[in-house]
Amino acid sequence: MTTPLSHTAPLRADCIADSAGGLTFDVSATGSSEPAHLVLRHREGQEEVTLPLTPATKGHLRAALPSSVALPEGHWDAYARVTEGEPHRLAPGAMKVHSHASRVPYETRQGNLSVECRSGTTPFRATRLGARGTARSTPTNPHSPAIPASPSY
């Protein structure tokens, strides 16, 4: 199966994080038609998760990470890979994050898309809007809900 994905334009991904731990990525796509994948790479390890990007709506490809796929805690950087070429960092688009999500997409200081995975004991709470009006999420301390913990970007 082939899907369109631009090799030159910055790729932007809209994300939905549900309360069960599932993530959906809708990547804006135009250009050449080659097989494409969404790649999540753990920053502190050699782990990598590859998900197929399949046609969703006009001009968008979708990758779904079900809650049944285990991801170790930490930060995962998001990339798009066309065929066997080098992956390209994704930029964040609109983000819809459930308040009890354990996997939360966010914009890094460099303007890239990453996902923070936490255990179910530390809930996330959207606290402010990013540069493009997207929600950034920070973990809250369940023992002191009035004082949210600092985001670990």
The total count of strands amounts to: 14
Give the C-alpha Rg. Answer: 15 Å
> Share of helix among residues?
under 10%
Alpha-carbon distance between the two ends: 36 Å
Q: What is the helix/strand order?
A: EEEEEEEEEEEEEE
List unreliable stretches of 5+ residues. 123-153
Q: Main sheet, how many strands, which sense, barrel?
A: 10 strands, mixed
- Note the total helix count: 0
Structural class: mainly beta
User: What does the average pLDDT come to?
Assistant: 78
Strand-residue fraction?
Answer: over 45%
Shape: globular
Structure report:
The protein is an all-beta fold and 153 residues long. Helices cover 0% and strands 52% of the residues. The chain has strands spanning 3-5, 11-17, 23-28, 32-34, 36-42, 48-52, 54-55, 60-65, 74-82, 88-97, 103-107, 113-117, 124-129, 135-139. The chain is globular, with a radius of gyration of 15 Å. Residues 123-153 have low confidence and may be disordered.
